[in-house]
TrEMBL record:
Protein name per the record: Lipocalin family protein
Domain Lipocalin-like: 29-119
Record-linked InterPro entries: Lipocalin-like
Organism listed in the record: Aequorivita flava
Amino acid sequence: MSYKFTFLIIAMFFLSCEKPNPEAQKQNLSGYWEIKSVKMPDGEKKEFTINTVMDYIEINGNSGTRTKVSPNFDGSFTTNGDSENFTLKIEEDSLRMYYKTPFDAWKETVISAKDSMLTVVNRDNKIYTYSKFKNFNLESPTIDYSQPGPDNSRL
């Protein structure tokens, strides 16, 4: 019985130490991302609950574009023209995004890139967490008057 417990502990250790696959992360970068939080190097965390601007990331092979966009109520997006190109590289088992503009050059390291969550760390050791944007749903709810409920009690 004790060897099974020891095996379980060792297996959990190895599974928890597994690093994310950079190639798989690359597949999850494309999409509309809204910032949720920024964790500063001193541990302070800033939360964002409402975003009027978000990042649209488009990947094409080992390069991509990050464009600032604002969502519209009709489901479309408006861009402010602010866009940055980047190159993707896998270094030291991590996915890196290299940016270069006429004014600056920098890199971000992808910590995690999943279907609905993106986390990156920049050169200032700030950790940015994003979630996939969900379109506005402004349709009024449909009430089924044939069923009892809080809006339609049968008497």
